[in-house]
Each structure stands twice: as structure tokens, then as C-alpha cells.
Amino acid sequence: MTAEEKEARIAKAVALFKDGYNCSQSVVAAFADLYGFTNDQALRMAASFGGGIGRMRATCGAACGMFMLAGLETGATDAADRAGKSHNYAVVQQLAERFRQENGSLICAELLGLAGAKPTAGTEAEPRTAGYYAKRPCAMMVETAARLFADYLTETQTVR
Question: For residues 29 and 39, is the Cβ–Cβ distance under 8 A?
């Protein structure tokens, strides 16, 4: 992956988020074509992971998107492939640690400054307004997750 391709994918992820897609959708859709998925398929498979998984403020949706991509890249498809499963888990843990180091947490509520809040934030998606974007670090989380995954692809030279 060239530096230009990497930057284009990161920019696409952030633009998707700013267009109204959730954090997970934005990260997955920016890379889905590498794995033969259409934009619509990518958006559907990542839809439930926004807002810290279904807006429950658990694991950051951008990080979840990055983990989905790690599964597309390294996931085992043979139930008996313990080595393959273990490799995928190692990749996910490596990406998670990088994300945590950069952002201080993998937990959506903590990233939003809502630690100690109710476990659910309701089901109603908030309108995307200037105030929405101003009070949330989510675009930065999307950018970080997309960059970390692009870095992983570049480091391992497994770009399709």
C-alpha cells in the first residue's frame, strides 16, 4: 500500500463518518473492497457495532471495525485451525493495544468521557449536527482505527 493509498483510505473512513455512517461502518467500508465486499455489504455487516456496539458504549465501534477487518485479513475458516485462530487473536490484540496506547481506552464510554454512566445510552441515534461532532472524539477514533489497520497491512505487506 502506497502512502497515497493509505491516506486515501483513512480520509475515506473519516469522510464516511462525517457523512453520517457510524464509526464501525466508516472503518470497515473504507477497506471492504480489498476483500471483495460492496459498500452496501460493508455498511450492513458493520452497522450493529457503532456507538460502542449497538450504542451501548462498550467496545469502541471504530476499534470493532478494525477488528472485523483483521478477521477478513487473518481470520481462520477451518474450525480445527487452532494456529490460524491464535494468529488472528494475536493480530487483534496487537491492534487493540496500539489503539489503547494512542487513545487511553478501547471502551466507548471512557473515550466519550462517560465512564460510570448507565450501561446503555438508549437506542435512538443522535442527529448529526455540528454540536454532535464538536463534543465527540469519534472522528479521531475512526481516523486512528483506519490508520492502524493501514499500518498493519503495510507492515505485513499483505495488501491485496
Answer: yes
- Which amino acid type is present at position 57? R
- Can you give the pTM of this predicted structure? 0.93
Contact 13, 146 (CB under 8 A): yes
Per-residue pLDDT tens listing for the chain (160 residues): 899 999 999 999 999 999 999 999 999 999 999 999 999 999 999 999 999 999 999 999 999 999 999 999 999 999 999 999 999 999 999 999 999 999 999 999 999 998 776 655 678 888 888 888 888 899 999 999 999 999 999 999 865 4
CA atoms in the 13 A half-sphere facing the CB of 67: 18
Output the CA–CA distances (angstroms, integers) from residue 118 to 32, 83, 85, 111, in the order listed: 33, 39, 34, 15
